[in-house]
Structures are given as structure tokens and as C-alpha cells.
Write a structure and sequence with these properties.
This protein is 75% helix and 4% strand. Among the domains are: 37 residues; 119 residues; 116 residues. By secondary structure, it is mostly helical. The strands form three sheets. Strands 4-3-5 form a three-stranded antiparallel β-sheet, with no helix packed on it. A two-stranded antiparallel ribbon has the order 1-2. The longest helix is centred in the C-terminal third of the chain and has 77 residues.
């Protein structure tokens, strides 16, 4: 009886303890892991995706549209790839509700704005923007409906760029420790987002008991990549199969085959991509750059004979519709890019490197930093205010005030021009004109020259921001890349020294002596000094946050290699030696394929760079010079003909007939002022340079935010400056020619 009571008592409390332990485990592990994953996702998911998620969810509540099952299945696949918290219904609803709201807002502003500001104003311009918004909104329904697909493609490109390295990290770890879960965790630790997010989620799904094993969780994740990257799936399956091999040699062969398969398939896919890239890039170049810019040549004639066409009509076309179309076509080109190699923004991965994204100043022994946005904004504000000064002066100065330079060049004067009457054959600064009571302008050469500062303010300030934002980090990356380039040979020597029986501490100093004067030599020398001078062990000499060698050479590739060395050295010098030699061989293979991929893309990248750096700004600059001359000639030709007609009116009867016909000529107007025309073209050049730089970086490097910012800083500054210089020179030359033509016409008119 006592034994029975004791057994019941024991069972009762065992069940209670087990229940409490399970509750504690659920709270401490499951909820914690889920919270950690949400925090990780919140940290690394772009903010614009969070805004897009909110808009889709709100649209689904307001105006729910359910897609058909086939479309919903495809959308859900894209949503799962990029970890969006939306539904296919929300995406479909936003694709219709967003354009509808845009059309309503533009319609209200187009109708109510002119009525409030000027009740007697013409409503034709308002109707143009209403029609434009309707067409633009209807066209945007398709891209907005496919936005999850584009986001998923961008995510896929970012992940694909890291897949080769992920196989490298997993294989490197599993050579000395055959544990798949630890190998995936090792890869997730050294890879940047977004692939690290996916791999951590694979582990978290096991820890939260969503899947029973790491293999099951990994296989479910790989299902999403069968459509896009079958070689990655096959490489992972080879790694999994190595766990079941009986002999060590077969296990290692399986691991090496997985990395070799990934490298070979990557090269083959990129080869086909490079061959198929010429046609879409040619179409993009013609439709987005060549034809729009060459079409600008005839626009001055068109707007001169069609006075209904205003400068803001051209701005809606060239600065809104065309850039969006070019960007869309560029993203389509990038969406088919296969697996490649991507670089890492170390300032995003390593929090200690974030300060290098700012402008650093040395003040005594302290270091101050300033966000480059403030400096760039100050440059923008100064240039922009000077650029719009012709408009400001028109409203600030007395009516009719202008600075006139006489055509002969021998006399220069500053005077008031009564009733905005422009002297024939003269150069003027503002050049506002009175046409039937409407003051139109500025048509002056001085205003056109100052207008160059408006696109320069955008291009130069944005480029300066990106350049200052990336300059310090790029220097660190370049040093790390130099080290990575030499690191394979240095690692091979280190592995041989350890294999000869030397302790790891002494092996570092020996390799530092042999590689003295190189970047890798300085790295090994720094490790050796930390060991001998500071008394650190090998792990601290490499990984110490303040004095470790990696603090001066931040590189995930080098860090992972050194961690393999530290962990394998615990199993003996021979294991460490073999592990390091194998790592060096893997790095050589990756570098060899990387160089072959660069050769494949060299012609395409060179062609695009020439478009960005020279051809586009040069063509646009020449077009602006021609436009300025045509506008000047056409703007004065009507006045000259009227003057010729008034002179012939006092002559013979036949002359009176000719004069009457000339004085009544009204088949062309003043056209668009060069001031506004140049601003439209200049901003379009800045936009095209920005978009094409993103495309070039995407084709060359895949997802590389740091490299993109660095290229934007270079191209925006140099190309925009070149455009402004060419525009200024050609504009001055052609206006001198126009002045000579008009001066001769004045002479002919006077003699007549």
C-alpha cells in the first residue's frame, strides 16, 4: 500500500515537473527564437518593403480583389521567397487601388490648383495632366501587380550571389567536422543577408520543432530553389549525401564534388547570360537613351509650330514616363541574371565599420564624424538657388529689367527694356518677352547658362553624397580584396609549415617573413606581433575586437578561413594543415571562375560604361547647344519679319503687299525657353546615368550596395559635369552663330 502511494506520488510530481518544463521550454525557446527571427528580419529587410507591406494590407481591407488560383499560387511563391507579410489578394488590390488613388489626386490637383491660383487660367494644361495620369495609372497596374515578382527576383539575385560562398563555407567546415547543422550555422554566421536570413530560418525551423531534423528543414527550403538554381540544390544534396558515406575518402570526394559542381554550373550559366545580353541591352540603349535624346533635336521645331505644347508637358514625358520605362526594362534584364559573385558591404555587417560611412575629421586626439547628407545638401542648395536665379530675379527686380550685350561686341550696357521689347540681334541675360499681355521667358543666354546649375546641383550633390558615403568603406574593402587575392598562396604556405610540425604560433611568424612586403605578409605579421608582444593566443591574436588582425582587414572569407584553422588545430597539426591547404585550393578555384566571369562580361560592361561616361552626356550637351540656337533664331525671326514687313509697307505697292504678308506671318511661335528645355534634358541625363549605373553594377556584381554607391558617386559627378561643360561650350558657340545670322538679317532689313 505504501509502495502504491509512493508510486502515485512520484508519478504525479513527475507529470507536473514535465508539464512545467515543457511550458518553460516553449516560452524560452520557441517564442524567443520566433522573436529573434522577427528582430533579425526587421533589421535586414529594407524599409521600403515594410511600407509596401502596409500599403498592400490596407488595400486588401479597403478594396479586396481575389486573383485566380493559378495567379495566386505564383504570387504566393514570390511572396515566400522574399519573406513579405502580404497575401496575393493584398498585392492584387494594391495594384488597382494605388493607380486609382494616384489618378484621383492628380485630377483634383489639376482642376482645383489653377482655379485657386488663377480663376481665369486656361484649363488645357489641367486636362493634359488628367489624361497623362489616367494613361500612366493604367499602365502602372501591370508593374504593381508584378512587384512581388521583381522583389523576389532582386532577393534571388542577392541570394544567388552568395550561394557559391555558402557552399564554400559549408564544405570547408564539414571537411574537418561532419555536422550539417553546425556547418549551416557556420555559413549563416559568415554570410551577409539575405542568404544568412534564409539559413538561420532553416535552423530556427528545427529549433522551434517545425521540422524534426535539419535535413528535412533544409530540403523544404531547397524546394523553392529548384525552379531558379538547380545546381545549388544538387550541391546541397551532395553535401547531405556525404553524411552517409562509409569511408572518409568518399565523404571528402562528395564534398569536393559539390563545390566543383557549383562553380562549373555558375560559369556555364553566366556564359549563356553574357551571350544573350546583347539584344536586350541594345534595345534598352536605343529606346531609353539614343532615340529620346536624338528626338530632342526636332522638339524645338515642334513646339515652335505647336504653341499648345509647354515645357511641363515635356517634363512629364522625359522626367517621369521615360525614366520609369527605362528602369523597368533594366530590371527585366537584371531579373534573368544567373548565380554569380556578390560583394559585401562590411559597414552593414560589422557595426564598428558604420562610422566609416561618414566624413571623418581629426581634431587633436579625437575623431569627429559628419553625415555626408548635410554637406551634400548645402552644395545642392547653393547650386540650385543660383540656377533658378533668373526666375527669382524676374519677380524681385523691377519689370523689364535686363542686362543687354550688343551684338557687335564693342558696346556692353545694362539698362531697362521698356515693355519687355527685346532689341534685335542682341544677347540678353533674362530675356522675358511680352506676348499679348503674357510675360514669357526667360529666353536669355545668361539664363540658359545659369540653368546648367540645376541638373548639376542634382547630379553633383547626389554623386557627392554617394562618394563620401562609400569612399572610406571602399578603401577598407580594397585592402581586404588585396589580401583575399594573395591569401590562397599564403594559406598554402601556412598549411605546409603547420604540416612540417611547427606550432601554429611559430608558423605565422615564418610565413610573415616569407611574404614580407605584401598585404598578406602584413596580416600574418600583425598576428605574430599580437602573439609575441601582447601575449595573446592564436584565436585572440586574430579575432580580438580591438587588436586582432581582422579588425584591420575585415573580410568574411579570411575570417572563416581563420576560424577553420583555429577549430581544426584543436584536432592536431596534421588535420589543421590539411584543412588550411584545402581552403587555399577552394579560394583559388573561386577566384579562377570569378576572373573568367569578368572576362565574359567585359565587352558588355565596357559598352555601357562608355554610354554613361561619355556618349550620353556628349550627345545631350550638343542637343542643348543646337536647341539654344534654334530657339534664339526662331524666337527673333518673327520680330525680324515683322520689322521687314513694316519697312516694305512704306515702299512700293508691290512692296506693300509683300510687307503685309510678312507682317502677318504667324505660323510659328516663340517655342520653349532654353532655360526650361535644358533643365528637362539635364535632369533626364542625371536620371539615365543613375539608372544605367545601377544596371551596370547589377550585371557586373549582382547585388552589391556598396559598389553601387561607389559607381554612382563616380558617374554622377563626372558625367553630369561633362554634360554641363559640353552644353556650355556648344551653347556659346551656336549662340554666337545665331547672333551673327540675326545681325546679318538686321542689316538686310535695314537696307531693304
Amino acid at each position: 500500500m505504501a509502495d502504491s502511494n509512493f508510486t502515485d506520488f512520484e508519478k504525479k510530481y513527475k507529470d507536473r515537473i514535465k508539464k512545467e518544463f515543457e511550458n518553460y521550454k516553449n516560452k524560452s525557446e520557441i517564442s524567443t527564437q520566433s522573436r529573434q527571427y522577427q528582430e533579425f528580419k526587421k533589421q535586414y529587410m529594407p524599409r521600403n518593403l515594410s511600407l509596401y507591406e502596409k500599403l498592400c494590407n490596407i488595400s486588401e481591407k479597403i478594396f479586396k480583389i481575389t486573383p485566380d488560383p493559378k495567379e495566386a499560387k505564383e504570387q504566393q511563391e514570390y511572396i515566400d521567397i522574399c519573406h513579405l507579410d502580404v497575401t496575393p489578394s493584398g498585392v492584387k488590390s494594391f495594384s488597382f487601388l494605388g493607380p486609382l488613388v494616384f489618378i484621383l489626386i492628380v485630377a483634383i490637383l489639376s482642376l482645383a490648383g489653377p482655379m485657386i491660383l488663377d480663376p481665369g487660367a486656361d484649363t488645357k494644361s489641367g486636362m493634359f495632366f488628367i489624361i497623362f495620369s489616367v494613361v500612366f495609372g493604367l499602365v502602372m497596374i501591370i508593374p504593381l501587380g508584378k512587384l512581388p515578382e521583381f522583389i523576389a527576383n532582386n532577393w534571388r539575385i542577392s541570394v544567388s550571389n552568395q550561394m557559391v560562398l555558402s557552399i564554400f563555407y559549408i564544405v570547408t567546415y564539414m571537411r574537418h567536422t561532419s555536422n550539417l547543422e553546425h556547418a549551416i550555422d557556420f555559413a549563416a554566421e559568415h554570410l551577409p543577408p539575405p542568404l544568412s536570413l534564409d539559413l538561420k530560418k532553416v535552423i530556427w525551423n528545427v529549433e522551434t520543432q517545425k521540422y524534426s531534423s535539419i535535413k528535412e528543414s533544409l530540403d523544404m527550403y531547397l524546394e523553392s530553389w529548384k525552379k531558379w538554381n538547380i545546381e545549388y540544390v544538387e550541391s546541397m544534396h551532395l553535401i547531405e549525401s556525404s553524411l552517409y558515406e562509409n569511408s572518409e575518402s568518399r565523404r571528402l570526394d562528395s564534398l569536393e564534388k559539390s563545390l566543383r559542381l557549383m562553380l562549373d554550373e555558375t560559369y556555364e550559366k553566366m556564359l549563356h547570360y553574357a551571350h544573350n545580353l546583347q539584344s536586350p541591352l541594345t534595345m534598352l540603349n536605343m529606346l531609353g537613351i539614343v532615340l529620346p535624346i536624338l528626338g530632342l533635336v526636332i522638339l524645338p521645331l515642334v513646339v515652335s509650330f505647336m504653341e499648345e505644347v509647354k515645357w511641363y508637358h515635356l517634363m512629364a514625358l522625359y522626367n517621369l514616363a521615360l525614366p520609369i520605362g527605362v528602369y523597368y526594362l533594366g530590371r527585366v534584364v537584371l531579373s534573368i541574371r544567373p548565380t554569380g559573385y556578390g560583394e559585401t558591404d562590411i559597414s552593414e555587417v560589422n557595426p564598428k565599420m558604420k562610422k566609416y560611412r561618414n566624413v571623418l575629421f581629426k581634431v587633436g586626439n579625437s575623431e569627429l564624424s559628419m553625415n555626408p547628407f548635410y554637406f551634400s545638401f548645402a552644395v545642392f542648395a547653393i547650386m540650385f538657388l543660383i540656377g533658378i536665379s533668373p526666375i527669382l530675379l524676374h519677380y524681385l527686380l523691377p519689370p523689364g529689367f535686363d542686362i543687354v550685350i550688343y551684338g557687335s561686341g564693342s558696346e556692353t550696357g545694362m539698362r531697362f527694356i521698356d515693355n519687355y521689347q527685346v532689341p534685335e540681334g542682341k544677347f540678353y541675360f533674362l530675356g522675358y518677352r511680352d506676348v499679348d499681355g503674357d510675360i514669357i521667358g526667360p529666353f536669355g543666354l545668361g539664363a540658359a547658362i545659369l540653368s546648367l546649375l540645376i541638373p548639376l546641383s542634382f547630379g553633383f550633390s547626389i554623386g557627392l553624397y554617394y562618394k563620401l558615403r562609400s569612399r572610406n568603406v571602399m578603401k577598407i574593402r580594397d585592402e581586404s580584396k588585396k589580401l583575399e587575392k594573395e591569401f590562397a598562396a599564403a594559406l598554402f604556405q601556412l598549411g605546409n609549415r603547420i604540416g612540417d610540425g611547427l606550432p601554429v604560433e611559430i608558423a605565422f611568424s615564418k610565413v610573415a617573413e616569407v611574404t614580407s612586403g605584401t598585404t598578406s605578409g602584413r596580416f600574418f605579421e600583425l598576428v605574430s606581433l599580437n602573439i609575441t608582444k601582447l601575449g595573446m593566443n592564436v584565436e585572440a591574436a586574430i579575432f580580438d575586437p580591438k587588436h586582432g588582425a581582422l579588425a584591420y582587414y575585415p573580410s568574411n572569407l579570411i575570417e572563416s578561413s581563420m576560424k577553420v584553422l583555429v577549430q581544426s588545430s584543436k584536432k592536431g597539426p596534421l588535420v589543421a594543415s590539411q584543412a588550411i591547404i584545402n581552403v587555399s585550393e577552394y579560394i583559388k578555384q573561386i577566384h579562377r571562375v570569378d576572373e573568367r566571369l569578368k572576362d565574359l562580361m567585359a565587352d558588355t560592361i565596357s559598352s555601357l560604361n562608355s554610354q554613361i561616361s561619355f556618349l550620353t552626356p556628349s550627345i545631350a550637351g550638343i542637343v542643348i547647344g543646337i536647341t539654344s540656337m534654334i530657339t534664339t533664331i526662331l524666337g527673333n525671326l518673327k520680330d525680324q519679319m515683322a520689322a521687314l514687313g513694316s519697312n516694305t509697307d512704306t515702299g512700293s505697292l508691290g512692296g506693300a503687299g509683300i510687307g503685309g504678308s510678312l507682317s502677318n506671318l504667324d505660323f510659328f511661335g516663340l517655342g520653349i525657353p532654353t532655360f526650361y528645355f535644358q533643365v528637362i534634358v539635364g535632369l533626364y541625363v542625371v536620371q539615365i546615368i543613375y539608372i544605367m549605373t545601377i544596371i551596370v553594377n547589377g550585371i557586373k556584381n549582382g547585388a552589391d550596395p556598396l559598389g553601387e554607391r561607389h559607381l554612382l558617386g563616380q558617374n554622377l559627378i563626372t558625367s553630369t559635369t561633362l554634360y554641363c561643360i559640353i552644353s556650355l561650350v556648344v551653347m556659346l558657340i551656336f549662340n554666337i552663330v545665331a547672333g551673327m545670322v540675326l545681325g546679318n538679317l538686321v542689316t538686310v532689313t535695314g537696307t531693304t
